[in-house]
Amino acid sequence: MIELAGIEKRFGDNVVLKGIDVTIAEGSVTALVGPSGGGKSTLLRCINLLEVPERGRLVIGTESITFEPGRRPTSENVQKLRRQTGMVFQNFQLFPHQTAIQNVMEGLVTVLKWPKDKARLRAMELLEKVGMAEKAEAWPSTLSGGQQQRVAIARALAPSPRVLLCDEPTSALDPELSEEVVDVLSRLAQEGTTMVMATHDLRLASRVAGQVLFLDGGTIAESGAPSAIFGAPQKERTKRFIASLG
Ligand code: ADP
Ligand code: MG
């Protein structure tokens, strides 16, 4: 349902993604692991087209786009693909001047032009799903990191994206706060939400992911089930990395 083929991305002379091929089934969870600078965030940003690759092909559901050097995709095509995705960031990035529910409604009202009462109902449903309904009227600054991230997840899911992209969703959180976010992501996974997440959190990856991709130096060095990648990595590089995470 999501396909990346031959995705290449460079920043100046730095080739950050060197021809990435990935297939992601509907309802599956894929974890991107690997050393800092390996290209995890860039890969996520290429899926939602915050970065435009130089080469390759991206398919999300019925929408697709082909990248070639020197040819910018049309903004219409970019918008269509981007709307298939929702993104959750390490630092939550809630709008500080909006309450929790306003954050979740924002895209529905301003981008999708939903009437406010309909957007409010949808937002409330999502806040319930992430266990944040009682905090609907709270300001982000009054919420814990874990609570803010749960609101951010609700916001990302509001327009019903085909895939939820998460970039280190628990990295800014203490273990206890991280746990409540892992619980929410795990529940979403059980409900069949398609997700791709970059994470250093092996517990998160083992609990929710069906496939793990070990990304190193812009290539997928190794891939497989979490038990295989974390329990019995094949390559020296992967072994060292997993060992370093303790
Ligand atoms: P990871 O998320 O695995 O730590 P990143 O995708 O953030 O890796 O980074 C991969 C490489 O791309 C790094 O060398 C980083 O310096 C470079 N990079 C990422 N974003 C940019 C950017 N906007 N401009 C220039 N270089 C970038
Ligand atoms: Mg990153």
UniProtKB/TrEMBL annotation:
It is found in: Cell membrane. GO terms for cellular component: plasma membrane. Residues 2-242 form the ABC transporter domain. It holds the Pfam family ABC_tran. SMART domains: AAA. Transmembrane segments: none annotated. Belongs to the ABC transporter superfamily. This is ATP-binding protein. It comes from Xaviernesmea oryzae. The lineage of its organism: Bacteria, Pseudomonadati, Pseudomonadota, Alphaproteobacteria, Hyphomicrobiales.
